Structures are given as structure tokens and as C-alpha cells.
Amino acid sequence: MTIRLLLADDQDLIRGALSALLDLEDDFEVVASVGRGDEVADAAAAHRPDVALLDIEMPGLDGLAAAAVLAARVPACRVVILTTFGRAGYLRRAMEAGAVGFVVKDAPPETLADAIRRVVAGERVVDPALAAATLAAGDSPLTGRERDVLNATRSGAGVADIAARLYLSEGTVRNYLSAAIAKTATRNRIEALRVADERGWL
Amino acid sequence: MTIRLLLADDQDLIRGALSALLDLEDDFEVVASVGRGDEVADAAAAHRPDVALLDIEMPGLDGLAAAAVLAARVPACRVVILTTFGRAGYLRRAMEAGAVGFVVKDAPPETLADAIRRVVAGERVVDPALAAATLAAGDSPLTGRERDVLNATRSGAGVADIAARLYLSEGTVRNYLSAAIAKTATRNRIEALRVADERGWL
DNA sequence: ACTCGGCCATGACATTTGTCAGCGGGGCCC
DNA sequence: GGGCCCCGCTGACAAATGTCATGGCCGAGT
């Protein structure tokens, strides 16, 4: 019985290469391959893969969101997240989105095939080290608004810009920023953003 | 006549996948595969590849530096940079380092094989759009110190920290930062860092 | 009913950051 | 020698940022 796969990654070359790699295995068949998150669900509905391999960074819809849509629309299809970054927050969010596997791109090549087979067998597959890190990072102490404001900081915008974009007063924005800085135990917004990012508190 | 290839990418899975992809071509043979920049030159010396495919982000030595070393130690080996980011500065630096090809990872899969063959034939291969962007970005107007200070900003450190790290007065640091902000036509250090990054002014 | 927490805001304050003008020293090139 | 530019510094000022106290409005839980 061959395992039908869907591949989603925004980098064409990587997608092609992964496809080539997976095709080397006799029991795998790549039945669909897309480059945007918002094409995942349609492709899965059309081709009925057993497993969807989703990258996180994708245009349209990120892999985590795509996983959630997929779980709702094509529940028979198991989701494995395949990403560059073994960030704690990604893993947590992937699990919440219904993924059953999580593989980082610097794992040895056999890992992927192995993970796919185990997922099909009903197991959950996660790198143990990453799982530990995720637990260590704990839940995000940031409130929704604090997250919003921190995220808006990413572009380098000033308080005024953020306030405008979020329809808040400037003072409020500064307050949230201050709270975020306190909770991350840093000394300014950019450090706060960096550690919140690392901890997956986004 | 088969073309001998060396593959350097820090992500095992990607390296394996690319290897699989390239092996599909009858005239290619992957003779070496490494995961660190500082292993490139030795591997090339040992296996005498015709073409080295180097990723930029690598531990030990980045792909650009590795290209320079390779050009000096194994001049017969042509260098193709294979990277995620089609950033103007990368291309410029790649060319300065002696690379003859530059392929981005979201190019269509055939592009890579094509680029390799053309490089072997003596051509230079660069995405035209990227080449144009690189010319548009122009040479860096930043002075050495301005670069240093901007780079130190990356971690999110404040003026005082940067001054300490660079053995400068705080006022001087602020002046350089101000100059960098002016030259990038932005409004604060973090925007300045972002655009300088994009333009390859590092 | 009461409390707690998130949300949004204000005002006041200290600190940091960005800008500007100006100084001296050195290297390079005409 | 005289320009020119980079380097490094200072001092002064305006603007942005971070902190704190305080208040009101909600919804969820006890």
C-alpha cells in the first residue's frame, strides 16, 4: 500500500528536491505539490493524500494556519510540519493546529521518511529535544494586545505608527510595550521582540 | 562526461533532497556533501568536483567566505551560490568572492541543473531580475564604522552597550547611527538596519 | 455581588535616541 | 600645501521611548 503525499513549500527548488528524495522510497507517492498555504486545502480535497508535509513560511496562509484548515476540511489527512526553525512556539502552535508530526529541515534525511511512516501508523512524531525546549519555554505570559504591539514593532515602526495601525492611543501602545519589555526581562522593544520570538510567545 | 558536484548546505534534509534531485540527471554526480562552510575547501581538494554548490547560511564559515577560500585553493572548481535570499548584497559579495553562478532556492527546479551545465560551459549564470536589483542598490555609502555600529545594533543593544563593545564614546555611536539613518533615509536604527541589510550594505 | 484580569486611556516623569554644529587628528590625492 | 573624507570626540537640544500611578469599562470566574 503506497502512502500518498502532499508537499507544500514556497521554495520551488526545495519542493522539487524533496519530491525527488521522497520518490526514492518505493512506498511513497507525491500526489500534489503546492507553493502557497492557501492552496493546500483545495489540493488535499482534490487528491486525498494520506499525509501533508507543510512548511511554515509560505505566502497566502502560513503552514500552521493551513494545518488548521486542513484538519477541518480533510480530516483523514495527517499533517506533518516541516520547517527550518525548531522554535518552541512553532511546535506548540503546530500541535494546537492539529499536526501530528514536526520535523526540522536539518534533521538527517532518513528522519523524514521514518516520520511519515510512523505518522501513518498513528504515532505522533516530534524531536525530543525540541519537545523539551517547548515545555521549558512555557506558555506565553503575553496578553493578546501585547502580542499585537510587539508584532507591529517588527517593521521598525515608531509608537505613532503602531498606534495608528492598531487604532490605539500612543500612551496605550507605550504601556503595552513596557509590559512586554518587563515580561521578557529585557530593556527595550527590540530585545523584547527577539526573546518573545525565540520563546514562541508570538 | 559527467559533471562532478560538491554540495554544501547546513540543513541535512535539504542537502539530501538536493542530492536526490541532482542524481536524477544522468550527467551529474554528487561526489561530496558537507554541512559546514569550513569543510568545503578540504572536501573539494579531496574530491575535485567540477562545480561546488554553496549555501550562504552555514556554520563555521559562510558560503561567501567559503567561495573565496575555494577560489584560492581549488581554482578549477567553479562556484555556484545557492541560497534562500535573493538579496542584492549577497549577489555582489558572491561575485567578488569569485562565484560564477547564483541561484535562489525558489527558482523552478530545472533552473539549477541548467545553471550548473551553463557554468561548466564557461558562462556566468545570474537571475536577471536580481542582477538589476543589485545594480539599483548601488555601492554601500556607509563608512566602516557606520557598518560596525549598525551591526552591533542587531542584538537590540542600546547605545551604551554598543559604545562599550566598540570602545567608543556614546556620542560618537549616536553620531554614526544618525549618519546611517540619514543614508538609508529611514527614521530609526531598526529601520536603518533593515534596509541596509536588504541593500547589502553590511 | 465581588474580585480579578484584560483592555484602553491619561498625565507626568526620567531616560534614551536622533540631530546638529563644531573641534582636532590623520591619510590620501592633486 | 590644500582639499577632502573618515575617524573620534564634545555639548546642546528636540523627539521618541520607557516607567509609573491612576482611572474606567468589560467579561469570566468564585
From TrEMBL, chains A, B:
Entries under SMART domains matching the protein: HTH_LUXR (SM00421), REC (SM00448)
Modified residues (4-aspartylphosphate): D55
Domain Response regulatory intervals: 4-120
MF terms in GO: DNA binding
PROSITE patterns: HTH_LUXR_1, HTH_LUXR_2, RESPONSE_REGULATORY
Domain of life: Bacteria
Classification via InterPro entries: CheY-like_superfamily, Sig_transdc_resp-reg_C-effctor, Sig_transdc_resp-reg_receiver, Tscrpt_reg_LuxR_C, WalR-like
Presence of the UniProt keyword Zinc in the record: no
Keywords associated with the record: DNA-binding, Phosphoprotein
Domain HTH luxR-type: 135-200
UniProt KW DNA-binding keyword: yes
GO biological process, one term: regulation of DNA-templated transcription
Annotated protein name in UniProt: Two component transcriptional regulator, LuxR family
